[in-house]
Each structure stands twice: as C-alpha cells, then as structure tokens.
Amino acid sequence: MMIPQSHFLILGAVLFALGLYGALTRRTAIGILMSIELVLNAANINLITFNRFLGSPDGLGQIFALFVIAIAAASAVVGLVLVIAVYRNMKTIFTDKINLMKW
Amino acid sequence: MVKYAHLIPLFPFIAFAINILFGRRLKKASAVISITASTISLAIAAVTYAGFLKGGGSYAVGRWLSFGGIPLDFGVTVDGLSCMMLMVVTIVGTLIQVYSVGYMHDDKRFSRFFAYLSLFMGSMLGLLLSDNFVMLYIFWEGVGLCSYLLISFWFERPAAAKAGMKAFITTRIGDTGLLIGILLLFFSAKTLYFRDLGHLGINDALLTVIALLIFCGAVGKSAQFPLHVWLPDAMEGPTPVSALIHAATMVAAGVYLVARTYGLFIAHHGALIWVAYIGAITALMAATIATVNNDIKRILAYSTISQLGLMMLALGVGGYEGGTFHLMTHAFFKALLFLCAGSVIHAVHTQDIFKMGGLLGKMKVTGWTFIIGSLAIAGVPPLSGFWSKDEMLSEILREGHPFLFAIAVITSLLTAFYMFRLIFVVLFGKPRSELHAHESPAVMTIPLAVLAVFSVFAGFFKPVKVEYFMLGVSMFIVIGGIGTAYVFYILGNKVLPASVRSKFSFLYKIILNKYYIDEIYEAALIRPCMSLAKFAASFDLRFVDGAVNLTAYLSMIAGRIQSWFDKYIVDGAVNMVANITWLCSAVFRRLQTGFIQNYILIAFLGLAIMILIKLIGGY
Amino acid sequence: MNGLIQTLSDILNNYGLRQEFAIRACFYSLAVLACIFGLGVVTLRNIFHCAISLAMTLFCIAGIYLFLNAEFLAAVQVLIYVGAIVTLFLFAIMLTAKIGDRSIRQTNKQVLASLAVSAAILSLFVSIIIGSPWKKAAADDTLRLGIGELGKALMSVYALPFEAISLILLAALVGAIVIGKAGK
To answer: CA-CA distance, C85 to A77, in Å (whole number)?
Structure first.
C-alpha cells in the first residue's frame, strides 16, 4: 500500500470540516442536510480506512459504514419530508424564519 | 296555686321569640301564637288570683344575683295589687290582640306587630310580678322599648318616627331619675326588695329624695306634668297600641310603681304631697286641653293623662284604695274607648272629629260601646267609673284637701264634658263630610263588647260603701258635664261653641296650644341643648378633630418617611437583586439565541478548545 | 489492489508511467476533486448546484473507497447516495425553493465564526493525524472482503444490528409517508 493512512484521514478531516462549515452557515434546511451528508461521508471514509489498515477479519468497519449509509438515507428521507411539510405550512425553507414556537 | 305565677310572663316571651324569628313564614299565624300565649297567661293569672284569694302570697323562685354580698332573689309578688293588675293586663291584652287581627289585617309587618305586642305583654307582666327594683327596672325598660317600637311602628311616616323618639327620650328622663333613686336606695339601705320599703331605717331627707326620684320614673312613664308631652304624640302609633300601652297598661305602670313603693311614700308626706300636686296639675291641665282638641285619639290621650293625674292625686293624698281601684277600672274603659276610636278611624280613615258625625246609625256596636265607655269614664252610676271615681273623691276629701278636691271635681266635670263632646260630635248629628262608614268586622267588635261588659261591671269587683254626698257630687258632675256638652254640641251646634271661643279667645288659644309646654320645652330645653350640642360639635370639629387630624398628619409624615425608606431602601435592595439578575440575564441571554446553528457553533468551539487543551496538556 | 486499478495502472505503464505513481495520482486527484466539490456543496449560492456538487463529491468518495479495498461499499455509495439520496434532495429542492434565484442569501450571519471554528477543528485534526504514529503499511494487504463475506457477516455476527436498521428504515418510511401526506 503506497498511500499512507494519514492521507485518507486528512481527506476525511477536510470533508468533515467542510460539512461542519456548511451545517453552521447554511440558511436552508436542505443545505444543512446536504452538509450533514458530507460529514457522514467523512466518517465513512474514516471507518473504512481503519478497517483497511487495522485489518478486521469480519469487516466491522465496512459493515458500520453500511449502517451509516442506511441511517443517512433514513435521516435524509425524514428530514426532507419534514422540510416539505414545513414548507407547505410556512411557505419558507429558511430555518431562521421558522420561529413559530420560539419566544 | 300561686306557685305558677312566675310562668305568666314566660309565654308571651316565647311567642315573641317565635314571631320575631319565624314571622316571615308564619304571616297571619303569628297572631294565633301571640293570642294563644296571652290566653295561657290569662289562665295562669286567673289561677294565681284564685290561689291568692285562698291565701297564697309572694314567693321566691330562686337565687338570682348577688351585689357585693347582698343577695337578690328572683321572686314574684303576689298580692291584691299585682293580682288585680295581672288580670287587667292579661284580659285587656288578649282582647286587644284579638282586635288587632282585624285592625292590622293588611299591614305588611303584621307578624312583627304581634311579636312586639307579645314582647310588651311579657315585659308588662314581668314588671307587675317583680318583687325587687332590679327586675322592675329591667321590665320597666322593656315596656319602654316596646312603647318606642310600637309608636314608631309605621316608621315610614316621619311623624311616627319622631313621636317614637320623643316618647323614648322623654320617658328616659324619668327613667334616669328612677335609676338614680334605685341606686341611692341600694347604697343607703342595702336592699332592693319592695317588701323592705316600710322599714328602711335611714334618714328622712334621703328617703324623700329617693321617693321623689322614684316618682320621677312614674312621672315619665305615666305622662305626668311636666313629662306628659310624649303621650299625645304617641298616638301616631297603631290604635291597638294606643289602647294597650298608652291607655290601659304601660302608662299605668307609673301609678303602679307609686302604689308598689307606697310604703316609701306613706312614711314621708314630704314626698307624697308632691305626688298629689303633680297629679292635680296634670289632671286639670290635660282635661282642659282635651276639651278643645279635635283629634279623636289625642282627646283620649289627654283624657288618659288627666285620669292618671287623678290617680296620682288620689295616691298623693293617701287614697291608696281609690287610686288603685281607678287604675283598674280606667284600664278597661279607656282601652274600650281607644278601641272604639280605632274602629271609627278604621271605618272613616280620619282622626278629626269635626269631619265625622252621625256615625251611630252606621256603626251600631262601636257606637253603643263607645257610649258605654264614655258613660263609664264620666262616672255615671252604676258603671265602673262611678265607683272608682267616687272612692277617689271621697278619699281626697276625707284626707282633708278641699283645694285638691275642688280640682278633682273640676277635672271630672271636664272629663264628662269632653267625652260627651266627643260622643255628640262623632256619633250624633249629621255627617260633616263624605264618609262611607261601615261597621268593623266581628273580630274587632267582639273585643269591644267584652270590654264594654267589663267597663260596666268592673266596679262591682270591690265593695264600696256609697256616700250620699259623693253620689250627689257625682250626679252633679255627670249632669253638668254631659248637659253642657249637650247644650254646646247638640242644641247650640256651631253657634254656641264659637261664641264661647271668641269670648275667651285668649284662654282658648293657650289651651289649644297645650299651654305652650312643647314650645317652652323647645325654647328652654331643646334649643339650649341643641346650641350646646352645636358648640360641642364645633369644639369637636376644631379641637378634638384637630388633634385627631394632627395625629393623622403626623402619622402621614411618618408613613411618608417609612414609605420612602420602603421604596428606596427595602425595595431598592429587592430591585437591586432583580436588576443584577436582569443584567446577568441580559448578558447571558445572548447565548440563548434560539438559533440551532449557533448552538452547534458553540459546541464545536468547545470541542476545539477541549482538543486544544488536550494537545497542549499532552497525552 | 483490485482489477480495475490494476488495469488502470497497466494502461499507465504502457505510457511509461510507473504503477505506483499512477495510483497515487489517481488517489490525490480524486481526493482534491472531492474536496473541491465538497467546498461547492457548502458555498454555492444556487442550491440546485449544491446538490449536483454533492453528487460529484459522493462519486469521488466512492472512488476513494476503491483504494480501500471496499468495492461493495463503493457500489452502495453510488447506488444509494448518488442514485437515491441526491435524487431525493433534487426533488425536495424542486418542490420547495425557486431554482436559480441567486439573490437569496444562502448563508446566515455566523459565516466568519463558523469558518474560524471549522478551520480550527480541521487544523487540530490534521495536526493530530500528522502527529500520530500510524502504521506504514496495511496489516494484511491480501485480506480482501468480498460481497459474500460481508453478507455472511451481516447475517450471522451482525444480525441484530441489521434487523434494528431494517426497523429504523421501516419507521422512517412510515414516518415520511405520514408527515408528507398532504393536508389532512
């Protein structure tokens, strides 16, 4: 293996930082959800990297990554449905406009 | 059977309690309760009387009070005087209550009226049975209270309310004298029992003062000169009240008091002669006023005052028998006369006798009983008034008071005159105005008839020896009085009274204005009192109120200081805590933006810091 | 190394490039592309472009998975992420936001702070990663997890989490239908 482990991890860290930045700055719920997908992918990269380099015989890391993908799909579905429902009621997708239950 | 006498006042009191508590629900049934109670009292009184005739006497029910070691029993007096008065009060009271059912039938405070009547009956009977001054004084005030309540029973009428107050205040003057007398007696002689009055063993001057003070109470209650002014005004009350309280019973309480404490008076002629002269003045004065008054009830009221004066006169000269005898007979016929007057008023709705006339044809029972009562009071033999008046006159003469005898004769003459003036004007002649008179219902006429019977025959209860001189005097009085009235008001009709009136216009004016006594009181007592009260009020306003206001002002300043302290120190401390909290919250509130991304930012900032610390601190 | 990369390196060898260099070039170019598209996801104004950029990022990450001997996951990444989730995002965007409305500000007021925090986190992570003593080579380069092995592991050792995930997916499905049902 000619590519060192740390490079994979740095890629994961960069994607994580990008996702974090997006989640912190995006005004729309959809944008936030997309940023979170980035974060999840960064985590997946890390999981698979460690699985590869630490050598797990039954593929623990990959299976975890699989689970993460499944949960990401579920969260995306639910999140997007919520966005649509909120949009239907409030006619906006901006999170700072959705303040009906805030004081 | 004397030993049940103390139960006599109990039943009216029970009736009073029931009527005053449940009157609203009982409505007309309250009359039944009151009359039943009175009838029971009447029965017990009759039993007591029978027991007395068999030899019963006073007894004590039990120990009641102890004043500074001097015991006082709750006792009842059973003697000739009290038995006689018990019978009179229960009979007259019961009949008047029956009469009231008719007279008050559409009054809105019907049950209240009967409650008061029962309270009065109980108090009056208790007064008669008292064997000591304390009980007597309590019941004395009780009847005074009932008098006040019943005079101003129709308190919606200002005149009635005023008359009630006048009666209460005027009698109060006498009552105060009575109270002082009782206290003096207690502190000097250490006794309050009537039975000890004959042998007190204290000096004469003090006893005279005590006797006169007790007589003060009698003067007030029996409307004697100079405290007689309340009784004519008391006629503002319902007529049954006038009959019961202000003719037959309560006003007689004064005479009864003198008779009851006679032992005190008889030992000291200095006091007794006052009684005689006060009585004489009252009798003559009231009789003259009665001759010119036009109000049917006021004529009877002045007649009552006059007759009570005669009784006082008789008692004052030592005529105990005659005075008390007249007390009884007078109760019957004066009650009868008042009830007749009430019946007339009930029929014609006016009290002015010169608006009536010719009523005998329309109101047979009332008319004839009225005539019987008038004959009785005029002293026509053999009606009851003749016997008692005859005895009084003979006693006055026998005790050697020709001047007082003359006054008594003149008074009796005037009595016959004004009573038949009333009779002739009201019952005979032609109707003087449009009146639709009708006979009163049976519930009112039956008591009249019963009382008429008593008025006729009450004189025979006491065997009196007929003196021919006195019979002659009486006949002179009767014929003179009635004849003059006949000449004036039947034959002369309007001409003669008017000419006499114009001839003695000065005298007439004085009498018509009741000797200006009310005006004199107004000028001599009420106005000084009022101006004193006003002065006191202004003193109160300036000085007392000033002091109060000063205190108030000072406390206000203290309050201001305290409020300042409260506001800026105490509240300041509280507000400071609040403000600090507010400031802190104003700062930290910024953290709680309610903006999730902000929270995430902070969280990751924290994460970064923690990692940094971990890195710097090493593994 | 799998066959695809082998083939790719063979081709590169034919052009006189060394296999190792070729593999490295592939990896770093994919990594840089993933980062660039990732930056596009979080910075582009048009949200539709963001979604497309996300799809590209995910593609690149799928490529990265190949370098980690995870062919199945790479396939799953493409199928599920690019094929399903990004499509879902596109649908959601088209149902809600107005496409091409550039005038709408897409970022909130804490851009600078977020940038600082993200940069700090990144620098910390990188410094930790660089400072850590990693193994130079893989434990067992020959260890290869095929689809069969993964399937067996899922159905035996990880059966319970697998069932839990299926339950979560069912719940998400039902929830999405219930919430997304129009009106009442």
So the answer is: 8
List, for residues B155-210, the tens digit of each pLDDT value.
Answer: 888 888 888 888 888 888 888 889 998 888 888 888 788 877 777 767 777 888 88
Report CA-CA distances (Å) from C114 to A25, B598, B603, B604, B609: 7, 9, 11, 9, 14
Measure CA of the first residue to CA of the last residue in chain B; give whole Å.
121
What's the length of chain A? 103
Q: In this structure, what token pair is assigned to residue C86?
A: 């990004």
Question: How many helical (H) and strand (E) elements, i.e. helices and strands, does chain B have?
Answer: 26, 2
Give the model's pLDDT for residue C12. Answer: 64
Nearest CB to C117: which of B595, B608, B615?
B608
Which CATH architecture fits A5-90?
Orthogonal Bundle (1.10)
Residue C84, burial from CB neighbour count under 10 angstroms (0-12, 13-18, 19+) = middle
Q: How far apart are CA B224 and CA B302, in angstroms?
A: 11
Scanning the structure block, which residue is given the tokens 């309007």? B494
Residues of A in contact with B595 (CB under 8 A): 96
In a domain? residue C173? no
Helix (H) or strand (E) holding B62: strand B59-67
Q: Hey, which of A15-24, B54-63, B123-132, B454-463 has the most confident mean pLDDT? A: A15-24
Say whether pLDDT at B338 is over 90. Answer: no
Domain assignment of residue C46, given as a range: 1-75
Q: Is B32 at the interface with chain A, CB within 8 A?
A: no
| B80-89, B271-280, B353-362, B492-501, range with the lowest pLDDT | B492-501
- Going by pLDDT thresholds of 50, 70 and 90, the confidence category of residue A20 is very high
3-state helix, strand and coil shares in percent for chain A, rounded to the nearest 5: 80, 5, 20
Is C100 inside a domain boundary?
A: no
Confidence tier at B153 by pLDDT (50, 70, 90) = confident
Domain count, chain C: 1
Contact A2 C58 (CB under 8 A): no
Asked if residue B511 has pLDDT above 80, the reply is no
In a domain, C26, yes or no: yes
Residues ≥6 apart with Cβ < 8 Å to A47: A61, A62, A64, A65, A68
**Domain locations in chain A?**
5-90
Alpha-carbon distance B38 to B10, whole Å?
10
Would you say how long chain B is, in residues?
619
User: What are the φ and ψ backbone dihedral angles of A76, each rounded to 5 degrees?
Assistant: -65, -45
Specify the higher pLDDT residue, B617 or C183: B617
Instruction: Please give the mean pLDDT across all residues of chain B.
Output: 82
Chain A residue numbers touching C97 (CB-CB < 8 A): 28, 30, 93
Minimum CA–CA partner of A32 in chain B: B597
Environment class of residue B412 by beta-carbon count within 10 Å: exposed (0-12), middle (13-18) or buried (19+)?
buried
Q: What single-letter amino acid sits at B21?
A: L
Range in B117-131, B549-563, C127-141 the model is least confident about: C127-141
Instruction: Give residue A44's pLDDT.
Output: 93
CA C139 to chain centre: 25
Verify whether the Cβ–Cβ distance A25 to B597 is below 8 Å: yes
Which tokens in the block code for residue B321? 């028998």
The pLDDT-based confidence of C180 (bands split at 50, 70, 90) is: confident
> Looking at this protein, which amino acid is placed at residue B242?
S
Q: Which two tokens stand for residue B163?
A: 């008359």
